[in-house]
Amino acid sequence: MSVTLVIGTQWGDEGKGKVVDYYSKNADYVVRFQGGNNAGHTIKVGEEIYKLHVVPSGVIQGKTGIIGNGVVIDPEILLQEINDLVQRGKKPKLLISDRANIIMPYHKILDGAEEQYLGDKKIGTTKRGIGPCYSDKVARNGIRAIDLTDKETLRRLLLRILPIKQKMIDLYGIKNKLDEKEILDTYSTYGKRLNQYITTTHIELNKAIRKKKNILLEGAQGTMLDVEFGTYPYTTSSHTIAGGSTIGAGIGPGVINNIIGIVKAYTTRVGEGPLPTELLDKTGEHLQKIGHEFGTTTSRPRRCGWLDLVVVRHSCLISGVSSLAITKLDVLNGLPELKVCIAYSLKGKTIDYFPARINDVAACKPIYKTFKGWATMDAASQKVSDLPKAAQEYLRFIERQTDVPIGLVSIGPGRTETIEV
Ligand code: IMP
Questions:
Q1: Cα dihedral across residues 216, 217, 220, 224: positive or negative
Q2: At residue 119, what are phi and psi to the nearest 5 degrees?
Q3: How far apart are CA 96 and CA 31, in angstroms?
Q4: Burial of 290 (0-12, 13-18, 19+ CB in 10 A)
Q5: Which of 86, 266, 410, 415 is packed most tightly, with the most Cβ within 10 A?
Q6: How far apart (Å, rounded) are the C-alpha atoms in residues 142 and 132?
Q7: Looking at the whole model, is its pTM more than 0.90?
Q8: Best mutation site among 74, 115, 221 for ligand 1, i.e. most ligand atoms within 8 A of its Cβ?
Q9: All residues at 6 or more sequence positions from 340 whose CB lies less than 8 Å from its CB, including other chains
Q10: Interval between CA 167 and ligand 1 midpoint (Å)
């Protein structure tokens, strides 16, 4: 049995959907533990493409998906996703934590209002209500999955919360009246429909671990969007790092056997905030085009740049990453020269760590090591030694710099375009 955790080591969109799908073949349970429908995981099976936002990717392989207590759930989106899967003959086996917080309509309104108010200082959120929902959870004003299943409880909660939210909406000058009856009816209907899935997932999960089942913990976003260790305040509102998985799923840290850090072979970011290795030139455009770097959730173009190993080392350190999965290596095909950031120059000093002060991050100038590129690679490669020599050197350099072994290399979107090391 094993408990394996998959996390993103950059700014999200590292290709976690594919890697989770790949490792799901051995898993009995696949667990989401943070984030919400700000995430978007794409899985390609043959000619079929699945885009999931809340449902754990492993359900495509027929595994039991758990939406843990640390996730924030938009029930409308979740029900749509379940429906879509049912229509495509993939009825998901799903368990939803009774403690997961619910994204309410006012969270979405306020997410948009705050961003608009911030103007050019905005975070660039996905406007899915994620931040306001997590804020309410911590402020103890949240509504949880279990609350949707009892209309009277929900009514009491709404009576307390809605007037405060209405005041905030009015203060932002937004013309939107929260209709208590409509919200109560809609959300208790969602509760009725989701009731069959809502349970004490932390108990189920711990039972499964005792029974030596294989568990895959599926992280969303990436370390640099972690609310504690990311490019704060340009982050999401949850813990995307390894530590987030134990809180967000209700398991002890000691049960995790493997921590897989996903590293895209270059860097991307959606939304605002500094990106030290950003390429605002033809190479950046090339990576965006060849890598199809447009958000799964918002369709926004992703900013692209060279691989930043200061970032990856930071992520490995914080999460105790035990192996790396390198994704989208094939996107680098055809580039005559590749650069990898190994340190930053900040105010005349060389630093090899990620600074806390956001203005310092913005002032960091990458120090690069330059590599020879490779023309192309065989999508049917089975071993690292089948890859072009220059690509092998690129991979070895990542291992040496991070001091973490590579366990998997993805050289295309399909399941078969994967090399297990
Ligand atoms: P929020 O999570 O919607 O509050 O957005 C906060 C920041 O995280 C923004 O920069 C988003 O673009 C970014 N973000 C949130 N989810 C993802 C994701 O799944 N991939 C990449 N960026 C994300």
A1: negative
A2: 55, -125
A3: 10
A4: middle
A5: 266
A6: 10
A7: yes
A8: 221
A9: 306, 307, 308, 309, 368, 369, 371, 394, 397, 398, 401
A10: 27
- Between the CA of 126 and the centroid of ligand 1 the distance, in Å, is 6
Known catalytic residues are 13, 41
Q: Which domains does the chain have, with CATH numbers?
A: 3-90+201-420 (3.90.170.10), 101-194 (1.10.300.10)
Q: How far is the CA of 225 from the centre of ligand 1 (A)?
A: 7
Cβ count near 122 (within 10 Å): 14
Q: What share of the chain is helix, strand, coil (3-state, %, to 5)?
A: 40, 20, 40
For the stretch 62-104, pLDDT in tens is 999 999 999 999 999 999 999 999 999 999 999 999 999 999 9
Report whether 257 contacts 246 (CB < 8 A). no
Strand 215-218 and strand 3-8: the pairing is parallel
Strand partners, 258: 4
Residues 374-400: tens digit of each pLDDT = 999 999 999 999 999 999 999 999 999
